[in-house]
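Lecture 7 notes: from sequence to structure.
We start with the chain below.
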Amino acid sequence: MKHWLGIFVATTAAVTAILADPALGAESDAGRSPVEPKTLPAPDQAVAQAEPAIRRLDDGRLALGEILLDPRTRELRFPAEVNMTEGLLEFIIVHQDGKIHESLLHTTISPTKLNVGFKLLDYTASPELYYALEEDGSFSNEFEKATEEQRKGSRVKIEVEWKDGERTRRNPINEWVAHAVTEKAMPADAWIYGGSRVRDGRYDAEGSGDIAAIFLSRSAMINFSGKDNFNDEVWFPFAKRVPPVGTPVTVIISPQSNPS
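Predicted structure tokens for the same chain:
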């Protein structure tokens, strides 16, 4: 327990700095002169205490907004809703202001905060499913190279938990996606945490809302590593398994066992 308390103390201080890092889309205050606030509270006026960026819960988990982090299992949890039960899919999860016309789920959480969660739980981003850039900034036909450490630290599984009447159910997200040709569920291949990218000083996933993609996406934080991840015409919701549109779910992301 002392070990996890130490992590909490360290990450509580670090997370504020991470959220303010220009590489995650926030503007830096470095080099600026102090600015006098336009209004100040009266001497007898109560001032609300600022809520910390990250909170430690009684069960040992950490809360970063609506995102729950478990340092012991390295599990991330956040709320989402079923967005589609039919139609072509290119994404598993997007922000509600993103590409909801082609995503199985949508969520209200910030992709930036989710990426902070991955960093706090010691996941390693791998660029192996992102196309490399040419000198002129255009995409090449080859993927970026990844080290063995990046490959091993980036493999995750994605699950969903939801209420079916009085019963709580939990399934791999792959079982909610069907292949149009085979009519079988998506294989249980690994999802790869790539971390998205910073472009023109902004965190790409925050702007696009792309969180987890089936059809390879350079801006998505996570991409599917299996066959046909370059085909945007074969993936559909598994209609017999997916709950109705609007059903609240909890997305659960954790390390994949025996990553390859």
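Points to note: The chain has a mean pLDDT of 85. The chain has one domain: 74-255.
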